[in-house]
Amino acid sequence: MFYPPIITGYNTSGYPVLMIFISLYCNRNKSTCKETNSRPPNIFNRTPFHDKPQFFTYLACLHTKTAVFYLPLTNQIQFTMKTQILILLFMVSALSSISAQTIDDKAIFEQYKSTICPKQSLNQLIVQTGKFFLEKPYVGSTLEINDSEQLVVNLRELDCTTFLESTFALALTAKSNDFSFENFCQTLTKIRYRNSKIDQYPSRLHYFTDWILDNSKKELIKDVTKKICNDTIRFDVGFMSTHPDKYKALREHPEFVPTIAAQEASINQRIYNYIPKADVAAKANKIKSGDIIAITTSLKGLDISHVGFAVWVGKELHFMHASSTLKKVVISDKTLAEYLNGVKIHTGIIVLRPIGE
Questions:
Q1: What pLDDT does residue 356 have?
Q2: How many CB atoms lie within 10 A of CB 180?
Q3: Which residue(s) pair with 308 in the sheet?
Q4: Using CA atoms, how far apart are residues 229 and 345, in angstroms rounded to an integer?
């Protein structure tokens, strides 16, 4: 009996290719393919087709902890045994690249799980988790691989935001009562998306000041900047809505732009405390290892240009981050204050303390 495959993963780019292949094959081999109008099988009961040979309309299941997505063909199709074998071979080839990524990420998670010590403070655990990723390659735009918004897990390649989110989610998962890959995915969703829910592209927390507000409401972090410095800053964001051509999702879905513009308007009404970069060296002793560092910027239309974690190295405060310059995850050779002073567009920092025991 030929049963439908269940694919666990987060990148479904191979499926359209497979459907096109089947469609073309049927058009060229009409004698071996015919449509039927019978109902598709119940995939949960794994009901087999009784008329041999026959192909399943349910091409695959994409399973996550929160949802199951079906990618059906429009009709059931009957094939000769030779055709079934050819399609099966093609499926194995097409899906191998999809499943391999998720398998790799799960393997990295298990490696992390075997090396980490959860019995320490959350800030200490964050530092240990961040160091687990040292030397991992910097790769940008890894969240933009899908046509529709869905959770992307990539522990192999990181940019500054995905490094921060993955590290934070792993540490929270390690501290929880459910140290599993599935719980890690749930935690990552909670951190990355507005109100912890994936609802199309605008639900992702694109501007980091929105990320701060949302995760503060979830009581995952606390903005401790005001306790360190009384200086304030107001942002004038608008880059995304005024440059939709720079974003794949906004190019393909211009209807999302008004929602993004409304989010920007909300950000522009808020006032934040920050530490000007000239004062960071003097205030460093009030920052802890494992604190989240959000670097404010002078770039027009943006709020935060870079993120990472504070790390004390001996008696000096350094910066652990995914560096686009060095193309990998590093702990800065320079102190945090020296690093900030070396980049003209960096204006200061916001300090966020993870909440947890």
A1: 75
A2: 13
A3: 293
A4: 20
Q: In 10 A of CB 74, how many CB atoms?
A: 9
Q: Exposed, middle or buried, 159 (CB in 10 Å: 0-12/13-18/19+)?
A: buried
Note the helical H segments in the chain. 14-28, 81-115, 122-132, 160-175, 181-192, 208-217, 225-228, 239-242, 248-252, 257-267, 280-283, 336-341
| Through-space distance between the first and last CA atoms of the chain, rounded to whole angstroms | 51
C-alpha dist (Å) from residue 127 to 79, 103, 202, 273, 304: 56, 25, 30, 24, 22
Question: Contact at 8 Å (CB) between 311 and 317?
Answer: yes
CA distance 59 to 23: 13
- Coil, helix or strand for 74? coil
Question: For residue 290, is it left (φ>0), alpha (ψ between -120 and 50) or beta?
Answer: left
Distance CA 243, CA 254 (A): 11
Who's near 240: CB < 8 A, 6+ residues apart?
206, 207, 246, 247, 250, 260, 264
Percent of the chain with pLDDT over 90: 69
For residues 290 and 83, give the distance between their C-alpha atoms in angstroms, rounded to a whole number.
56
CB 343 within 8 A of CB 324: no
- What is the mean pLDDT of the segment spanning 300-324? 98
Note the pLDDT tens digit of each residue in 287-310.
Answer: 999 999 999 999 999 999 999 999
Structure-token pair, residue 262: 């409304």
